[in-house]
Amino acid sequence: MDIVIKGLTKSFDGRRVLDGFDAVFPEGKITCLMGDSGCGKTTLLNILLGFSVPDAGTIEGMPGKVGVVFQEDRLCEDFSAASNIMLATGRRYSKSEIYHFLEKLGLSGIEDQPIREFSGGMKRRVAIARALLFDCDLIVLDEAFKGLDEDTKELVLDCARECCAGKTVVSVTHDPNEAKKFGDLIIRMEKK
Amino acid sequence: MKHKDWIERFLAVFVLLAIWQAVAMAIAQPLLLASPVQVIARLGTIWMEPEFFGAVAYSCSRIAIGFLLSFVLGIVLGVLAGKFHVVEVLLWPLMLAVKTVPVVAIILICLIWMTSSQLTAFIVMLMVVPLIYANTLEAIKSTDPKMIQMAQTFHVPFVKRLIYIYLPQIRPFLVSACSVSLGVSWKSGIAAEVLSIPHGSIGELMHDAKVFFVTVDLLAWTLIVVLLSLLFEKAFLMLLDLFFKRLEKL
Hints:
The structure holds two protein chains of two kinds.
Chain A: E1 3-12, E2 15-25, E3 30-34, H1 41-48, E4 56-60, E5 66-69, H2 81-89, H3 95-104, H4 120-133, E6 138-142, H5 150-163, E7 168-172, H6 176-182, E8 185-188
Helix pairs in contact in A: 2-4
Chain B: H1 3-27, H2 36-46, H3 52-83, H4 85-100, H5 103-113, H6 116-141, H7 145-153, H8 158-196, H9 202-211, H10 215-248
Helix pairs in contact in B: 2-10, 3-4, 3-6, 3-8, 4-6, 5-6, 5-8, 6-8, 8-9, 8-10, 9-10
């Protein structure tokens, strides 16, 4: 089912961030959202995820389970990568399956390490893996690939595209090349 | 701790003992103030007395039971208060009363309701619960709301949230609360025993030493209580550390 957004409006302290925003995120497609900073991309995602209530407008076709890569990693620092992912996936995957998947993202030999010992790029990949392995119908990526070096980004984008096949994905990015490579369609948001 | 810190601490203790020895020698009345040398000599013989180990076991067990009960209760109440504001509001006057009413008054009131053998554990519990509760509540309140959002988004069950998000957050608060409250346990527990005089306790022996003016025994028992309190603190904090390390391996 497509996600249909009609007339979405949201203001903060009298400043209108979204003004009657309309969009359709087609089912099973990857939609990339682009636009300047402050144009309302993250506000839109927050409304989609139910963290923020719109002043006006409707969203139809929103599924119950959503896998998210937040702007920050939001990982439990004292625990291993597998523990962090299993926190979301439960017993759907075994530890060895999770580490096998992480190897595809270029992470190996990390079995006994807590997240606090990971570099920024490694944490990012764990956060991406958590969203990709989560049993859901919609994946929301908020600048998920930011901060990854070019080679790693290529690797992760390929893997993400493979995992997202058949799922509805909404991805916020500032990188036009990333949007072209990853997205099936691109929506450009304008600053109000 | 650095090597230099150990030397500094050792010197501080040595200076204090030297002052104590000088004052005791100046007064020259062991009934009023026994010297550290006399107290240390007494420590060498006091453990051979028949009631020693019984008294230590009696007081240790009551204080440990009181502390462990308050540890569990304080965490449970803290988590509940952090999750449900109404619990925090309802507990506020109770916690405030326990924190502000003098421990002696509480002991005397409780003596009306319970036997002296039940009192120690209850008083320890009453004194420690507010400390553990306040620290747990503070930790829960300072949990990153973004992590809570993450847990909601991924439908993480409450028990897992507790293990992966709240417990690591509580850890530093709990360690500092335990460090303080283990000392409080011994202070309040022994105070309760001295006032209620349960048979076969350290408190009873301290009470007897005071009544019969055996100052050297009183000071020796005080030193034993300090040592037991330190031992308890180190052992419990080690167990707590072990628990959190095991948790990280999950």
